[in-house]
Design brief:
15 helices, two-stranded antiparallel sheet, alpha/beta, binds S-adenosylmethionine, Rossmann fold
Length: 423
């Protein structure tokens, strides 16, 4: 059955009384600001998902976003029900916090001014000749890139140097990395001395993730950075090298904080950073929205840099043939069974079992380009859930966002919702 996206206008915070069947208009998503560029974001199909919730959600139950990613569910529906937002990657809980918990105190601080002083000290302790002028020839530009990358071998005299050491000359310049480290340092200090709470801290980190995404010379993720092979690629990379982390941070900070204070509502939301098996094992009966990866690429490879920003744990970097790999990946990055052809079927079988065992209902997003054929997945859902559940599916076509500077930046994908509701 093909579902058209209707234009509902009413936005309500009230899903009706317990026991009453909600209306579709009760689940119209609210407008919310996106913060990072995320592969497979469901931001553009929230109306369709809301129509699905209207069919299976009951007002007294939490909504579980089991594979939350950049948190479109918390952004769109966080005012309607208690949300349990889970993802194996820690940065996801940081973003979810920004949509769900009020940041009451951080507005009193000028983070950029506080960081500015720290930045000046750090820059003066680094070797000279790391800054990017506007006009350079290709040879000089690549020498400068080399000097930035050489900071990987430097012994640092100051604390908070993780990005400056590990990522200078990759997605960011040394100067941009110094800003990333310094803003992180200021946020830690304010949190440690209790000037700000955890929701404030998470909002600050979310703005920093945003600034990282928009100043990066890559394509919105951190799988590979670009090399300057031609004058035209050099010019494009240099545009990004010269972008200001502080300006992107400050702009997002103002608008996101305004949105957060006006819209985040305390509905006993929970932030979880677990493997989906563990998250399911702890659940009371809920309505679970599951949007697992459907391609063979691991999110942990594409978004390792923001995972490291949130953990700030000086990770061991992956080594191949005696050299740190170009992508500077963390060695401990997660390999998802949904991205491995030999494991994906069992991963879904475990998902269906976990939903059943917690006596929950399920909305599962998947696409016709996934690792497992959509018909096979629907059959697996029907046989796993058995007679105790009604199982059905609906389709939507949308221009699915892919990342990369390719001509077919968005390609048509048919997105399905498989639904399983306890009878
Ligand atoms: C398609 S994305 C979710 C996108 C999200 N719905 C949005 O709109 O931003 C899939 C997510 O699944 C997460 N993931 C992969 N394997 C996981 C696992 N074993 N347990 C929990 N989360 C996992 C990834 O980190 C990724 O963020």
């Amino acid at each position: 059955m093909d579902v058209a996206v209707k234009n509902e206008v009413a936005v309500s915070n009230d899903i009706g009384a317990v026991g009453e069947r909600p209306r579709v208009s009760d689940y119209a998503p609210r407008a919310y600001p996106q913060v990072i560029k995320y592969m497979g974001s469901k931001a553009s199909i929230l109306r369709f998902i809301g129509e699905g919730f209207a069919k299976i959600h009951e007002p007294d139950k939490p909504l579980v976003d089991l594979f939350a990613g950049a948190c479109a569910i918390s952004g769109g529906f966080g005012h309607l029900a208690p949300i349990i937002s889970n993802d194996i990657q820690s940065y996801s809980a940081t973003i979810a916090s920004t949509y769900l918990h009020k940041a009451q105190n951080i507005g009193a601080f000028d983070i950029v001014s506080l960081a500015y002083k720290v930045v000046q000290e750090k820059l003066s302790a680094l070797p000279a000749g790391l800054l990017y002028p506007e006009n350079l020839n290709l040879e000089d530009f690549n020498e400068l890139e080399g000097r930035n990358r050489a900071l990987l071998q430097l012994d640092f005299s100051f604390a908070y140097h993780l990005f400056t050491k590990n990522y200078s000359g990759t997605w960011w310049s040394a100067e941009q990395c110094v800003w990333i480290d310094s803003i992180r340092e200021v946020l830690d200090q304010l949190h440690d001395n209790r000037s700000i709470g955890i929701a404030d801290f998470q909002l600050g980190l979310t703005c920093l993730m945003h600034a990282m995404a928009y100043t990066s010379q890559g394509t919105g993720h951190y799988a590979q950075y670009r090399d300057a092979k031609t004058v035209s690629s050099m010019k494009d990379i240099n545009k990004y090298r010269r972008q200001s982390v502080a300006s992107y941070f400050a702009r997002k900070f103002d608008s996101l904080l305004r949105w957060n204070l006006a819209n985040a509502t305390d509905r006993r939301h929970q932030l979880v950073s677990q493997d989906y098996h563990d998250c399911l094992a702890d659940l009371q009966p809920s309505v679970i929205y599951a949007d697992p990866p459907y391609a063979f690429v691991h999110y942990s490879r594409f978004y390792h840099a923001i995972e490291t920003l949130v953990k700030y744990d000086y990770p061991t970097l992956q080594v191949k043939s005696g050299e740190i790999v170009k992508g500077r990946y963390r060695v401990d990055r997660h390999q998802s069974p949904f991205c491995i052809r030999t494991q994906v079927r069992e991963a879904f079988a475990d998902l269906f079992d976990g939903v059943k065992e917690s006596e929950s209902d399920l909305l599962l997003s998947y696409s016709n380009t996934g690792m497992i054929n959509i018909e096979e997945l629907i059959d697996l859902a029907s046989s796993s859930f058995g007679k105790r559940y009604e199982v059905w599916f609906e389709n939507i076509d949308h221009d699915h966002m892919t990342m990369g500077r390719l001509k077919d930046r968005s390609r048509q994908v048919k997105e399905s919702l498989i639904m399983a509701k306890r009878r």
